Sequence to fold (422 residues):
Amino acid sequence: MRVALLSPLPPERTGIADYAAHWREALAASGVAVDAPLGERPAFASLHEARAWVQAQDWRGVDVVHAELGGGRQREYLALRALQAWRRTQPAGAAVPALSATVHDPERLVWRPMHALGLALERSAAPRALRQAAALATDAWALRDERRVAQGLDGCVTLTRTGGNALARRLHLAPELISVIPHGTLDVAPASLPALPPQGPLRLVYFGFIYAGKGIEDLLDALAVLVQRQPGWVTRLRLTLAGGTAPDIAFGSRGSYLQTLRERVHALGLSTLVDWALDVDEADVPALLQAHHAVVLPYRESRKLAWLGQMRGTSGALAWAIACGRGAITSDARAFAEEIATGNGAAFPQGDVPALARRIELLLEQPRLLREWAERAGELAAQRRWPQTARRFRAHFDAVCARAAIGRPAGVMAARPLETPR
Fold:
């Protein structure tokens, strides 16, 4: 089987690029030839450019074109639109590749207008508020376009059942078109937990890209609540803030977000219990996470996106926690609650600082939970290793190739919930 992958790839510093690199390696190891025809090409400026690019490629011998969609990226989405238009021009009986995509941010594909007006406005010098207002005003148009693209695929993948159900409902897809394939995990050597309280401090780590919207302020505030309530706990708690700090996300019109966090740590009196580990190399991630008792992901959902729908994706950081055999405290944003529902962590209502503080306090009072979470995370990791993930994608691609060969009706509203494969 030969697959053409439409996706960002390293050295681009995004979660989807990291995911795609591991995905590509796993598929290649399973015997699938994976090409990356987009290479380092910049984003298409228009659908016209995407169509010209599609026409210039040789698609003979390609069984599946698979895209990684998420992060509001336009290049892969426009390439899929162009491929769908190109397929319609091919003569009956011609061999054309099946079309598939992993949707990282369901319940939508890209969450931004991809029509000509939206793309032109996005590149204009108009004030940001005006561009956002225009995007909101034209969202019904954008949603119709996303539905057409989704229903023109031969199949798509979501990382969770929650995301798959949300995608099917919003984009009117038949459930058989959606495969639920959890985020793959690397084969990380297990490591025992550090000394548990009261023998040692409770070591928590936030891991992921560091920028506004991740709820990091809520985590700091929760620690401040605990220390204020029990001053002696300043020696029983440690937090490491670890992750990427790409300039385009760590800095903005309001200055350095990192500096804002450092100032907040100081103002809350937490300087003695907060450590920093920035821009950690991938090879060092297992040692970092396994030096801690649990991962904390206090994400908040974007208020701006709430006008357009509900984002039900998951997190590469949570996949790392599972791979490293560590439990997690997460907010109920995205599809996190599903990912820790089998006993590998606990959730709290996003933005609820007292509730987050109680989750942390419970670990101090009942440290056995840390070991239970770690054991369950290890079991999940064994089920989600990348070789198993690659086999699930092979089955998904067999299905989409079969649909492409015989044709299929347009997607319809999902009538039943999806099942997560084991």
Observations:
- DSSP finds 17 helices and 14 strands in the chain.
- The first helix runs from residue 15 to 29.
